[in-house]
């Protein structure tokens, strides 16, 4: 299959990553069929996409008419069967191998063996996931970064079973949807999270040890290293619960103490301090609600 043959892509999962991928694919002129079991999740995804596109219009990168056309290219369904005949399907459902397994079984039941599956997993082995589908040669990792419309990178990760043609197609697709790709081996964390997750964990440890306040840790990294967000601010933005889940998967794969989740994160989850979306994480956002 060649990139020119792909006019429609599928997006399984409409969380923040799925919404972002759907948006950039539609902005690149592709029809996008989004599938998520929950209509409530769609509602949120649609709002996120519109809000994000409004920012792009404000910047003058696209016109209002182009925004309307982009939105019109995205359709939503709860039925996996709507992805039948879609040649290229992105996957960004919950980071749990059993959830992914269930989804790919449903997809395999309706899609042909020439369908390309590109998973956005950040912490599960691509090779392990490829082994779940009927044609592992067409399975690949394409790992995007949050917020997807802004972050220019995608990591392209072939599984042991991935065909060279699938890798080439994923690289072409990354370029078409406006991303710069790097390729790497299927190892836990790939490149970015292998470096980023220990940094995030260490920031929580500094706070736990009372080395500095949350504000001072974040200010240190923003002003001392030019990070756009501090490590604790970032966790509030991405969701402390999601980060905690990813850290635990990493720890399970890496079996190294430096990947163990700090106790403070566990307690924050128990307290419901899961970040900006809950009104409280490392910082208090109750005034913003
Ligand atoms: N859609 C479209 N444009 C957006 C946007 C969105 N959702 N969010 C921000 N922007 C644009 C703004 O319009 C603005 O554009 P301009 O500079 O041309 O005017 C620009 O991005 C900056 O936005 P803001 O001025 O509103 O705010 P910030 O300067 O604080 O930027 C941020 C926001 C881009 C989120 C920035 O803080 C950032 O880069 N944070 C770090 C994000 C990061 O590290 N992501 C990677 C995490 S690792 C990961 O995702 C892996 C996964 O496995 C967990």
Automatic annotation (TrEMBL):
Keywords of the record, alphabetical order, are: NAD, Oxidoreductase
Matching entries from SUPFAM superfamilies are given as: 6-phosphogluconate dehydrogenase C-terminal domain-like (SSF48179), NAD(P)-binding Rossmann-fold domains (SSF51735)
Q: Which InterPro entries match?
A: 3-OHacyl-CoA_DH (IPR022694), 3-OHacyl-CoA_DH_CS (IPR006180), 3-OHacyl-CoA_DH_NAD-bd (IPR006176), 3HC_DH_C (IPR006108), 6-PGluconate_DH-like_C_sf (IPR008927), 6PGD_dom2 (IPR013328), NAD(P)-bd_dom_sf (IPR036291)
Query: What's one GO BP annotation on this UniProt entry?
Result: fatty acid metabolic process
Signal peptide extent:
none
Name the residues that bind NAD(+).
13-18, 36, 95, 100, 122, 146, 277
3-hydroxyacyl-CoA dehydrogenase C-terminal domain sequence ranges: 189-285
Tell me the residue numbers annotated for binding CoA: 52, 59, 122
Query: Pfam families attached here?
Result: 3HCDH, 3HCDH_N
Where does the entry annotate site (Important for catalytic activity)?
143
Task: Note the superkingdom of the native organism.
Answer: Bacteria
- Presence of the UniProt keyword NAD in the record: yes
Q: Which GO terms describe its molecular function?
A: NAD+ binding; oxidoreductase activity, acting on the CH-OH group of donors, NAD or NADP as acceptor
- Domain named 3-hydroxyacyl-CoA dehydrogenase NAD binding: residues: 8-187
Q: Does the keyword Transport apply?
A: no
Listed NCBIfam families: PRK07819.1
Name the family the entry cites. Belongs to the 3-hydroxyacyl-CoA dehydrogenase family.
The molecule here is called 3-hydroxyacyl-CoA dehydrogenase
């Amino acid at each position: 299959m060649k990139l020119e043959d792909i006019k429609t892509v599928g997006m399984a999962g409409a969380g923040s990553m799925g919404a972002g991928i759907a948006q950039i694919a539609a902005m690149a002129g592709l029809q996008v069929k989004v599938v998520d079991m929950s209509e409530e999740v769609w509602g949120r995804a649609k709002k996120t996409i519109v809000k994000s596109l409004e920012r792009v219009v404000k910047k003058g990168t696209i016109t209002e008419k182009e925004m309307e056309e982009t939105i019109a290219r995205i359709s939503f369904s709860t039925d996996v069967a709507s992805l039948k005949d879609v040649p290229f399907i992105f996957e960004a459902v919950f980071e749990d191998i059993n959830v992914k397994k269930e989804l790919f079984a449903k997809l395999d039941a309706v899609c042909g063996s020439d369908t390309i599956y590109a998973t956005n997993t950040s912490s599960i082995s691509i090779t392990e996931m490829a082994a779940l589908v009927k044609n592992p040669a067409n399975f690949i990792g394409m790992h995007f970064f949050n917020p997807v419309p802004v972050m220019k990178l995608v990591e392209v990760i072939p599984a042991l079973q991935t065909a060279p043609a699938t890798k080439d197609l994923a690289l072409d697709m990354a370029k078409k949807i406006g991303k710069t790709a790097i390729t790497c081996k299927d190892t836990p964390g790939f490149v970015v999270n292998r470096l980023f997750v220990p940094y995030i964990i260490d920031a929580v440890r500094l706070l736990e040890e009372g080395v500095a306040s949350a504000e001072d840790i974040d200010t240190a990294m923003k002003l001392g290293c030019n990070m756009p967000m501090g490590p604790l601010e970032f966790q509030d933005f991405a969701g402390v619960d999601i980060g905690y889940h990813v850290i635990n998967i990493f720890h399970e794969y890496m079996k190294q103490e430096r990947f163990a989740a700090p106790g403070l994160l566990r307690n924050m989850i128990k307290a419901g301090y899961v970040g900006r979306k809950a009104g409280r994480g490392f910082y208090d956002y109750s005034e913003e609600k």
